[in-house]
UniProtKB/TrEMBL annotation, chain A:
It comes from Niveispirillum lacus. CDD domains: RHO_alpha_C. Coiled coil: none annotated. Residues 93-288 form the Aromatic-ring-hydroxylating dioxygenase alpha subunit C-terminal domain. GO terms for molecular function: 2 iron, 2 sulfur cluster binding; iron ion binding. Gene3D superfamilies: Naphthalene 1,2-dioxygenase Alpha Subunit, Chain A, domain 1. It comes from the Bacteria. Signal peptide: none annotated. It holds the Pfam family Ring_hydroxyl_A. This is Aromatic-ring-hydroxylating dioxygenase alpha subunit C-terminal domain-containing protein. Its cofactor is Fe cation. InterPro entries: Ring_hydroxy_dOase_asu_C_dom, Rng_hydr_dOase-A.
TrEMBL record, chain B:
PANTHER family: CHOLINE MONOOXYGENASE, CHLOROPLASTIC. Residues 4-113 form the Rieske domain. Keywords: 2Fe-2S, Iron, Iron-sulfur, Metal-binding, Oxidoreductase. It comes from the Bacteria. Coiled coil: none annotated. This is Rieske domain-containing protein.
Length: 291, 159
């Protein structure tokens, strides 16, 4: 879907006021509540309820409009991705959160930006993926939802292979990849080596403030002895710190966009590896234009 | 805020590659020495709107930390990583993404900026000769010519 031989589509990004204007934030909140068919509500076991909730393997979605399409139809090809990752949801190991001084859409733009690894995460994400990541990056898009998948560096894959053996980890897929599944407007699920799953949710708190919540799942094969249990505890601490580090690297960039965006005069531009961002802006534009 | 505003000391821009930053109200600005020529721009990347230079002063390219776009003396992105594959921007398209220029005035060893690129540069000099050290933009100059307070030090205006 990314045809690097041609110029990418030139999306129109939402005007700056949707990132800085408190009244626009209220309008947007209303549009998302009134017109969005389904919205992620949490995970099975969370303190959410209602007859309008539907579970997809433990991912809970709230039906927001009476004539919503079936959930599986709304999620398109990514329903299967969520179901595969849902097998890890029985193994929560950590949760964390961070508050950003930025509009929620800036966090979403950041996570859907598939090529800031070399500049923003030069010592974390970037070296973990294959050096020829541009060749190996695979992106699937359907409506406002999308998935990008990177091949892990050989050393990273070998490292995970050892972790699976020593930690007694279960895998939902036999793959040496880092996957990122985004469900509009605020859910994204990262997974590594087909085993560790991190469920992220972007929670708007104000036009210029958002909370990013993430929960980590590390499924076990059930054959856990004392030695592997001890190993897992250390592993969880390390992986949690690494996940936090990545977020801490993203945070200043998001906040720098928030304070500068309103002063920009031009329209901005999206490249091929930012088309997922364009999809979000297109859907938001549709929702905001409805009466 | 409109009009001229004091951004800093000329000494901080003495050499090629040196830059200083500040805020004209809610607009971040940067002035950089390009081979002896002082050029000023909005300090906002044309790509995805990140604030580019975050320190008050420094030395180096006009480079966005988000995706490493680098801008030249005309404010045009001269280095765009992955342009051939991801953006396909030719010279005309790059020109269209040039950073909006701001007017720069060097007088009395001080650097002034104005968001209107064609603003009259005579005004800041008049401020220095006519005033008592308190400038119309709210900045304060000491008797020895150093800056006691500058209005552009921090972002002001609506959040």
């Amino acid at each position: 879907m990314l045809n690097f031989d041609q110029a990418p589509p030139r999306h129109c990004l939402l005007p700056h006021r949707w990132f800085t204007d408190a009244s626009a934030y209220v309008l947007e909140k209303g549009a998302l509540a009134r017109h969005l068919p389904w919205r992620y509500a949490g995970l099975a076991g969370d303190d959410v309820d209602g007859a309008d909730l539907v579970s997809l393997g433990g991912f809970l979605f709230r039906q927001q409009v009476p004539d919503a399409p079936p959930l599986a139809e709304w999620l398109g090809p990514f329903a299967a991705d969520l179901l595969a990752r849902a097998t890890a949801l029985d193994s929560p190991v950590a949760q964390d959160a961070a508050v950003f001084a930025a509009n929620w859409k800036i966090l979403v733009e950041n996570t859907l930006d598939d090529f800031h690894g070399p500049t923003v995460h030069p010592h974390t994400i970037h070296p973990a993926v294959h050096a020829d990541w541009r060749q190996h990056l695979s992106t699937k898009r359907a409506g406002p939802h999308s998935r990008s998948s990177w091949k892990l560096a050989d050393a990273t894959a070998a490292w995970w292979q050892k972790l699976v053996a020593r930690g007694g980890l279960r895998r939902f897929a036999d793959q040496d990849r880092y996957d990122h599944v985004f469900i509009f407007p605020d859910l994204y699920v990262a997974s590594f080596y087909g085993t560790m799953v991190i469920v992220h949710r972007v929670v708007p708190e104000a036009v210029d403030r958002s909370r990013l919540e993430w929960r980590t799942f590390l499924p076990s094969n059930g054959l856990v002895d004392a030695k592997s249990a001890s190993f897992r505890r250390g592993l969880v601490a390390m992986l949690s710190a690494a996940a936090r580090q990545v977020i801490e690297e993203d945070k200043p960039l998001c906040e720098q966009v928030q304070i500068a965006r309103a002063a920009a005069i031009g329209p901005g531009i999206l490249g091929w590896r930012e088309q997922r961002i364009g999809d979000v802006h297109a859907m938001l534009t549709q929702l905001l234009e409805r009466p | 805020m409109t009009g001229w505003a004091l951004l800093g000391q000329a000494g901080d821009l003495a050499e090629h590659g040196q830059w200083i930053t500040g805020w004209v109200g809610t607009v971040p600005v940067v002035v950089r020495n390009f081979s002896g020529s002082l050029r000023g721009f909005r300090n906002v990347c044309s790509h995805r709107f990140a604030l580019m230079l975050t320190e008050p002063a420094g030395r180096g390219p006009l480079r966005c930390p988000y995706h490493a776009w680098v801008y030249d003396a005309e404010g045009i992105p001269k280095t765009i990583p992955f342009n051939d594959s991801d953006f396909h921007l030719d010279d005309t398209a790059r020109q269209a993404l040039a950073l909006p220029a701001v007017a720069v005035c060097l007088t009395g060893g001080l650097i002034f900026v104005n968001l209107q690129a064609d603003a009259d540069p005579a005004l800041p000099a008049q401020w220095l000769t006519n005033g008592d050290g308190t400038l119309p933009d709210g900045s304060v100059i000491k008797a020895d010519g150093t800056i006691q307070h500058r209005s552009t030090k921090a972002r002001t205006g609506p959040c």
